[in-house]
Write a structure and sequence with these properties.
homodimer, 440 residues, alpha/beta, Transferase, Pyrimidine Nucleoside Phosphorylase, Chain A, domain 3, Aldehyde Oxidoreductase, domain 3, 3 domains, four-stranded mixed sheet, 13 strands
């Protein structure tokens, strides 16, 4: 095979054979195919697209490009979740302990965030001492001992994805559905999940702005997982406004703890019940008609009876974290400055622009613009309004947690533009738009 | 400016500003922009195209990326020619001395061939001792002394083109009209021509297989030259069958000499009169109605009275070549083996596939598959038939000149498939399809 032939075939809109894709991805991973040939190919893929079959083959080639985690010695049937990323999305922190508390072990590898707020690992690192760099043996041993583990991805897992992602970032080939889908799913497949719940976000604060793009991405990922013999569910969920109230690392941990205490914002609570319900149902391989309703009821009970919180505390302690921060969230990192933004008029909220809240949070230092940027765990924004709310002039809309006056001022600029009011009544936003099931 | 923004703009089908193109080309030439970003951009250009305005700006950026030859100290108004490449195209060898003999000085930089037969430099190197590596001083001095020079392109001329061409070759982005046009024209502009005659080939043996592609390429190049203040003419000429009879380096030199003696194949002779006529007319800046007819008459006379041949001999001698080879072409390199192919049936020739003749010639060793391949000057094919000819079974169609039995056998395989016969009368192929003039 010749690299130029494979590039040329995709350039002309042809469908690549599984063997061609595998040869190209392996050649790139082994540094036999140079960056410039992969770059030309990625642009051809971006502009010509890929069939579902090609996307499946690309994903499998990437998943098989390095080590693959075998969870079978410790979990009979492993269930995992993945969110495509949203503002205030701390769902993993809540549902992982709930599912584990229900007796279904969870072994999750997570990434760091690039963008408006930290990733799951960054959030957990708000808790002093919490380790996210477990090696494979520690990772497996912890699942065996505690039924729950949450650690960083090892570099030997789907290395082709890491290499290709870095190249996409500098060649304007990021926002391509087959490339996004294969990047996400290659890591999930390599990390040993038997069932995967995908939370595909759509809206102003999500990567996918349009419903049909998000639905297509969800469908491709479900197809990939199904083709690879995995049980799959994808939910399309709203990301026009932030999820819950907290946006920022320690603030989100605190909100997750509140939710595990049976409190927390109603939308976050419902979101966790839905995602947790799917995970529980899949983890128990229960295909009965009532499985989903039963699972949701059980997740709700574990939220209200403190069993989920206990499992969260066990997770924190097992990975060296300071469990007293779980018991007393006031001990989590706190920002030096607080400021508030109030409603400039009375009316109904018709928009709380998640992207602007995210940009405010990024300005404060809660996220990274570049991979190497440090994160400030304490800073962020508390959002006190939701679309559909009736507010009176002077009502509290946002609380800003900052460590720097200039940054605080820049965050205010964004937040002042985030809410939109109108005089007529406004419906709340739906939480979910659709659910897509794998058909195998 | 950021490279990813420029790549993204072209990826989305946007039109790049002159400054963006210049910044990107300069950054690449200076090695500030890496290969992988140029590769992604080239694929985006390939698939999204470029406006004429963008193509002009790309060409100018490439032309200005290195040294630019200033011919004005030695030639008031310099005229150049360029062929997009065809099988048996030895027109430069014939028209350069004819135009110089008419008193219009010619200073041509040529390239080496990549593909079925050698380039002009390779052909001239069939003549023992002929130097093609003149430095700028030698180049200019020779025009001053002899009114004619033919040498290799210096590396400092349009270096961006050399870099981009090498990258296109390995990223499946060669066959893009704006990239082809800018590559050709950047070198022509940098080498100081005031007027340029383009010979754009179309047909089975040409890069452009279709008339409308060739016409578009010709129009883009004429537009580029005109925008850069050059006098431009492009002729669209047939390349379905080989031009003249000889295909192969020394064989073509011999045929060029025969043509400069007033002999040679009729199609080659007519082709040289047309190209030479345009060059003479432009070189004299004569815009009168009769200029073309007068120029063609003059070129024909210089072919028949030996003045062109004398100028060719002067060129060879000035650049260190063995002029006795011009006087006695039997002294040119000759192949060890000869074989002939005869008509297997009687009928009218309806096709002499130039591509198959070219592949036969390449098999014999007359061309290069890779840049570093050596060329055998002696080998090649003499084509004794033209479309429209009536032949009888057993008539001579091809003579093969080879230095290796296995290669000879492979060449035969190609040549046996090259001619197509039919029983009804067939029209000869036209030599030219169209002429495009610059309108400035």
């Amino acid at each position: 095979m010749r690299a130029t032939d494979i590039i040329g075939k995709k350039r002309d809109g042809g469908e690549l054979a599984a063997e061609e894709i595998r040869w190209f991805v392996n050649g790139y991973t082994n540094q036999e195919i140079p960056d410039y040939q992969m770059a030309a190919w990625l642009m051809a893929v971006y502009l010509r697209g890929m069939s579902h079959r090609e996307t499946v083959d690309l994903t499998l080639s990437m998943a098989e490009s390095g080590d693959q985690l075998d969870l079978s010695p410790v979990i009979d049937f492993a269930v995992d979740k993945h969110s495509t990323g949203g503002v205030g999305d701390k769902v993993t922190l809540v549902v992982l302990p709930l599912v584990a508390a229900a007796g279904v072990p969870v072994a999750k590898m997570s990434g760091r965030g690039l963008g408006f707020s930290g990733g799951t690992l960054d959030k957990m690192e708000s808790i002093a001492g919490f380790r996210v760099d477990l090696n494979d043996d520690e990772f497996l041993q912890q699942v065996r001992d505690h039924g729950i583990v949450l650690s960083g991805q090892t570099k030997s897992l789907a290395p082709a994805d890491g290499l290709i992602y870095a190249l996409r970032d500098v060649t304007a080939t990021v926002s391509s559905l087959p490339l996004i889908a294969s990047s996400i799913m290659s890591k999930k497949l390599a990390s040993g999940a038997d069932a995967i719940v995908l939370d595909v976000k759509v809206g102003m604060g999500a990567f996918m702005k349009r419903r049909d793009d998000a639905a297509e991405l969800a469908q491709i990922m479900v197809d990939i997982g199904t083709s690879a013999g995995r049980q799959m569910v994808a939910v399309l969920s709203d990301m026009n406004q932030p999820l819950g109230s907290a946006v920022g690392n320690a603030l989100e941990v605190r909100e997750a703890i509140e939710t595990l205490r049976g409190g927390g914002p109603e939308d976050l609570r419902q979101h966790c019940v839905a995602i947790g319900g799917h995970m529980l149902r899949l983890g128990r391989q229960d295909t009965s008609t009532y499985a989903m309703a039963q699972s949701m009821t059980e997740i709700t009970a574990l939220m209200d009876n403190g069993a989920g919180l206990a499992k969260f505390r066990e997770l924190v302690e097992a990975q060296g974290g300071d469990a007293s921060m779980v018991d007393d969230p006031d001990r989590l990192p706190q920002a030096r400055l607080r400021d508030t933004i109030h409603a400039p008029m009375s009316g109904y909220i018709t928009q709380v622009n998640a992207l602007l809240v995210a940009q405010a949070s990024l300005e404060l230092g809660a996220g990274r613009a570049r991979k190497t940027d440090p994160i400030d765990p304490a800073v962020g924004v508390m959002v006190h309004c939701k679309v559909g709310d009736r507010v009176e002039k002077g009502d509290l809309l946002f609380t800003i947690h900052a460590n720097d006056d200039a940054r605080l001022a820049r965050a205010q600029d964004y937040l002042l533009r985030a809410p939109v009011f109108r005089s007529r009544e406004e419906q709340p936003l739906p939480m979910f738009y659709d659910t897509i099931y794998g058909n195998k």
